Amino acid sequence: MRLQDKVALVTGGGRGIGAAIARRFAQEGADVCLVSRTEAELEAQAQWIASQTGRAALPVVCDVSNPADVERAVAAAEERFGRIDILVNAAGISVAAPSTDLSFDRWKACLNINLDGTFLFCQAVGRGMIARGQGGKIINITSVVAHAGIPERATYAASKGGVRQLTQALAVEWAKHNIQVNAISPGFIMTEIVRDYIRRGIHKPEKLVARIPAGRMGQPDDIAGPAVFLASSDSDYVTGTILIADGGFLANGYV
Ligand code: NDP
């Protein structure tokens, strides 16, 4: 129970990586506020958390790219639980298109959700953490595309590169408030985003797996353990770090 009686807010908590992190946090003793745009998914995760862990789960429908929505979500969590100790920014979308065809609207939509949404939640939650003076943990989900290029991912890569640098900027700025700001760069994790790319032929799993030293695609739970570490007191002297969880994909100089 490494997060006993902590309060966490997890964006993208309705499914995939965010849901796996929210569930694991509750199993480690935290109450959790779950944020996304799909109420039914949030309700399902909240019910699982309540029934399987006995911890409180608050579902809040919110578009992370909408500043008023973000303020409302953070206020709802703070009103219900009194504070937020841990923020995880896992809400995100991916866009794949040849850069010559990428419309400006799609370019902006990806940046709005992945980068602006991450900043808005860091800002709104960070304000409360600083005002309460009890420190806190912020974990942003970036990607291997923040470290190495993948063709036809211009806006996704720009958004995730931005999240990586935002993480380091806030880590340095808020270290004096005892707020640790870190990020996780997942590799290829079997969630709806990746399943959709496989269905559309954008990802070829056998080609990817051949390039991953671990010999398999990741599962959402593979990201939950690193998130618990970064949310717990075990990482109190760790800030501004980008933890790569990719089965060795980026380290691989072979193939
Ligand atoms: P999923 O599509 O399974 O989950 C994405 C989550 O983000 C959903 O809960 C979705 O809910 C939410 N979300 C998307 N847009 C918004 C929005 N505007 N406002 C609020 N919530 C939103 O994908 P993953 O779990 O794979 O992705 C989670 C994060 O991990 C993303 O940031 C992604 O970029 C990152 N990532 C994923 C990798 C992978 O291989 N799967 C690899 C590297 C990084 P809803 O649509 O209902 O709002």
3D structure, described in words:
- The chain is an alpha/beta fold and 255 residues long.
- The chain has a single domain, classed as Rossmann fold, CATH 3.40.50.720.
- Helix content is 46%, strand content 15%.
- It is built from eight helices and seven strands, in the order E-H-E-H-E-H-E-H-E-H-E-H-H-H-E.
- The protein has helices at 16-27, 39-53, 67-81, 104-132, 154-174, 192-199, 205-211, 221-231; strands at 7-11, 31-36, 57-61, 86-89, 136-141, 179-186, 242-245.
- The chain has a seven-stranded parallel beta sheet, sandwiched between helices.
- Helix 2 links the parallel strand 2 and strand 3 (57-61).
- Helix 1 packs parallel to helix 2, helix 3 (67-81) packs parallel to helix 4 (104-132) and helix 4 packs parallel to helix 5.
- The radius of gyration is 17 Å and the shape is globular.
- The chain starts with 6 loop residues before the first strand and ends in a 10-residue tail after the last strand.
- The relative contact order is 0.14.
- The model has no long low-confidence stretch (mean pLDDT 98).
- NADPH dihydro-nicotinamide-adenine-dinucleotide phosphate is lined by residues 11-12, 14-18, 36-38, 41, 62-65, 90-94, 113, 141, 143, 186, 188-189, 191-194.
Strand-and-helix sequence, N→C? EHEHEHEHEHEHHHE
- Tally of DSSP β-strands: 7
Which CATH first-tier class would you pick? Alpha Beta
Distance between the termini: 41 Å
- Total domains: 1
Which ligands, by name, code or SMILES, are bound?
NADPH dihydro-nicotinamide-adenine-dinucleotide phosphate
Put simply, the count of helices is 8
Q: Which architecture name does CATH use?
A: 3-Layer(aba) Sandwich
List segments where confidence is low: pLDDT < 50 over at least 5 consecutive residues. none
Q: What about the largest sheet?
A: 7 strands, parallel
Q: On the 0-100 scale, what is the average pLDDT?
A: 98
CATH topology: Rossmann fold
Radius of gyration: 17 Å
Structural class: alpha/beta
SS strand fraction:
5-15%
Query: How much helix, percentage-wise, in residues?
Result: 40-55%
Which strands sit side by side, in order, in the main sheet?
3-2-1-4-5-6-7
Shape assignment: globular
CATH superfamily: NAD(P)-binding Rossmann-like Domain
GO molecular function: oxidoreductase activity, acting on the CH-OH group of donors, NAD or NADP as acceptor
Family: Belongs to the short-chain dehydrogenases/reductases (SDR) family.
Keywords: Oxidoreductase
GO biological process, one term: bile acid metabolic process
